[in-house]
Amino acid sequence: MPRRKYHSLPFLFLMFYSGVYSVAQENDIERIRREKIEDILRIQDTRTVFDSKLKRFLSDPDPVVRNQATFACASLQDTATLSQLIRNLEDDNVQVQHSAAFAIGQTGISLSEQGRKELEQDLLTVRIPRTKAAARLIEELGKFGSIAGLNDLMSRIGNYFPPEYHHALTMSIARFAIRGISSDDAVRYLLRFTHPREQTTWEIMYALQRTGRSPLIEQDLDNIALHYTHDDPLVRLNLATLLGKIHDPARSLEPLEKMASFDGDWRVRVNALKALSNFDLRGKPWYQTAFRRAMSDGNIYVRLTAIEAFASSGLSRAEDEPVLQDTFDWLETMAKNKDLEFDWHLQAAAALSLSKLEGKAALPHLPSTGYPQPLLQAAIFEAWGETGSPLILDSLLSYCSSSQYRL
Asked: Which of 33, 62, 120, 171 could share a disulfide with 149, CB 3.0–4.6 Å?
């Protein structure tokens, strides 16, 4: 027994030494990784292009470092890194592939027109079939691709069944549309998913509203407008924006008024009010009421939007509509804010709206006393300027010469 214990001591020592060495090795690896990541973040923060150290990190043996370096390229948008980013689309690490796809999307827009076309063709024909980040790459194409690239994308991906890349393709169409690039095939693809209405996703409606006015969308507007009853508020708020862009009073005003007045989500009410202000509402008291109702909404963002949107509606007191008279009276009460009943943001918005709508006639309702909130005082000055009245000059000069009201 003693002999066995004696022979076990070297073994125990070896195990202890191996453990200590392993921990030290791990600590050393972690230290090296941390130093490299700090270098990458410094390069990213200072926007250092053509950095040779970053290029080495893009092919670093450590996948964590490679991923951090690849992701940093999205901020730098240096086209000199594109060849390595394209190689990283087939990296052994999937996260690196996704970061490469994102960085390519951010960087591709910096290329010349010919360079973008060559890049999109390489991605469509060679890279998408090979990378595990295909969905991300499809979406990123929308950031820099051409109309030819969109058409190629629709022919290659749009007819997949089942639609493996449906979400990515939808968001790519939206990104193309943000840049003013759309096609009939892309719109038809989106409209396919608006029937039945219950299955329409917010991404589809978002891509449609980004596309905006399109003959195909206008043809299907009767169906699209009925989405104001959709369960998803993100569908409804994007629908409101779309209806404001299509600008079809016969089919848009009723759903917009219902969303502006009665929708349960304040974000939908905000978008609907903005959309309503795009229409000529003269002689339409039913729809004018939506603004007056929203000015007393329980949500301050809805109230602010109603006041600001009303200012761009073109409506005036000259119309013999009781609801308009009441709305202007309410704006005057808020602008004066005699008893400090209203939040100063509302007072500022009301003052600006009145001055834009009534010009010089609004001046008596714009108080000239100093306010403790600099932003409110600035808004009052701006409202004075909107009136175009020369009567404000003396007051403005006195404020300019007083240190008490410096902004």
From this structure: 120
Q: Answer for the pair 152, 123: CB distance below 8 angstroms, yes or no.
A: no
Where do the H-state alpha helices sit in 47-112?
A: 52-57, 63-76, 82-87, 94-108
- Give the type of residue at 238: N
- 263 phi, psi to nearest 5 deg: -65, 140
Buried b (16+ CB within 10 A) or exposed e, 303-314: bbbbbbbbbebe
Residue 88 neighbours by CB under 8 Å, 6+ apart: 58, 66, 70, 96, 97, 99, 100
Instruction: Work out the pLDDT band at 391, boundaries 50, 70, 90.
Output: confident
| Among 55, 127, 64, 125, residue whose Cα is nearest residue 99 | 64
First to last CA, the chain: 90
Instruction: Please give the Cα distance from 184 to 194 (Å, whole number).
Output: 16
**Strands of 165-258, DSSP E:** none
Show the DSSP H helices in 300-340 as ranges: 300-311, 322-336
Q: How many CB atoms lie within 10 A of CB 353?
A: 27
pLDDT in tens, 34-48: 999 999 999 999 888
Contact 328, 317 (CB under 8 A): yes
Which token pair is 191?
Answer: 């409209």
pLDDT in tens, 289-307: 999 999 999 999 999 999 9
- Cα–Cα distance for residue pair 259/236, rounded to 1 Å: 8
Q: Output the CA torsion sign for 74, 78, 82, 85.
A: negative
Q: Supply 283's token pair.
A: 């002689």
Q: Global pTM?
A: 0.86
DSSP state at residue 275: H
